[in-house]
Amino acid sequence: MQRTEPARPHLPSSAQRRTLRIAWLTLLGFFSVFLLLVGWMVYTGRQFYLSATDMRDATLVVRGPTEWVSWQPANRSIFQGIRDKQVIGEGDSVRIVTKAGYGQIASIRLFDESQFDLWAGADLRLDMLQTTRWSDHFQDVTIRQSGGYVRYDLRVGQPYRQVRFRVLVGDAVIDLTPGGSYSVAIQPPTRMAQVTPGAVIQPFTVDVAVRSGHATVNGVHSSRVVLDTRQRVEIDQTGLPGLAVPARWEIIRDGGFSQFNEAEYNNTTSNEPTLLRSNSWQVYSGPPLPAEQQGFFRLSSICKPPTVDNTCTPRDRRTAAWFYRAGGQTSGFTTGVRQQLGQDGGGVDISEYRTLTFSLWTRVIAQSIEDVGDRGTECPVMIRILGRQTSPDDPDQERVVCIYTDANTRPPRVRADDMLYRPVPKATWIFFKFNLRDLDWLPDYRYLQAIQIYANGHDYNSMVADVSLIGEQ
């Protein structure tokens, strides 16, 4: 019987194996490309989903006469009138006239219930009002402020996970934390900045304050200042922020009577244009009398109150305003100084100040009239504050303080209407302080026009020093 050999399996040749390997690699390559394309499409779709934005709008609320407010729509070159409750959007600008009244003239309410309050002279543009379209991922609000005073009250508990509020002023960027209250004021410079040749100088300074919350001020040259609650910083003309300081504002200029000499203060009584004179305090007196019957304003070098003996180190020396009249006079005469408040002397809006603390040191060395005189107005130190309650059309109102010495403790025999009387010990430095927001003073007034400090009577010898009026929000 013949034996048959089993058939051997047919083994692929090396060429066939190579072809098969290339086919698998090609298939895997195309599959990888397919997976990459699918992944890229998923990623791109997700990013589009997360980053697609909608432009949002805001509502303008007009709180004063509509002629004080103007509106520039986006991509337009001129401002036009606006109505109350008008809807405005990204790219629109709002401007308040500089001669508007006191307090808030208009408010911008955003889509998220944040609110921006605009005072006289405010000028801002809504650069960006955007949120993500289909998600709670991002909200971006960017404001370009070009003038005036604006308060930014941002909503607490934003519905978006990432929220950015920015205010652009000149070259500075101010980042505001949601849930806080902030103010940004653009002001003319009070002094010229010293810069290198060719440097860019802005025609304004910026005052940034934090009522509550946190703010980051980013200036030029990578400068950065972080503000906490009740702090403020000033950005100079070059765009550099200074140091963070407590949020307090000194309203009276030259309260230490140290910026000019005695002659320059007294030159304010002359009409001669070539004389150097004070631009803070103006000396005045009256009625017209012969020179030997008049009183005089002088400066006195003193030790820091309450020291009386005038013996102290140079660092403790101060300058006092001195009101002096002698000679046994028998008729009334006023000698004093006055100051028109505000940078241009046009007054100051005080509607944002919750407290207004006035203070000074005073010393009555002598007065010839007993008590406060027969009319209740003859006092060796008097303080008069002039203000208006609500509108520029309101009449000036005044609050007057009489500071005097008396041999007894009885109240004045004669009292003038609406005058406060404060007896003080003779020849002793006394610190006098009060809050203008107290009920006896100007609790709801929005405007201060001027302050006067003077002596009135027959013979008097009195001084005041370290005059201050501090506003706090």
- Uncertain stretches of 5 or more adjacent residues: none
User: What's the main sheet like?
Assistant: 17 strands, mixed
Helical/strand content category: mainly beta
What would the average pLDDT be, to the nearest integer?
89
Helix content: under 10%
Strand content range:
35-45%
The number of helical segments is 2
CATH class of the largest domain reads Mainly Beta
- CATH topology name of the largest domain, in short, is Jelly Rolls
Between the first and last Cα atoms, what is the distance in angstroms?
121 Å
CATH superfamily heading of the largest domain: Galactose-binding domain-like
Assign the CATH architecture of the largest domain. Sandwich
What's the alpha carbon Rg, rounded to whole Å?
A: 36 Å
How would you describe the shape?
elongated
Q: What is the strand tally?
A: 30
Number of domains: 2
Describe the structure in brief:
The chain is mainly beta.
Features of the shown structure:
single chain; 473 residues; mainly beta; Jelly Rolls; 17-stranded mixed β-sheet; 7-stranded mixed β-sheet; 30 strands
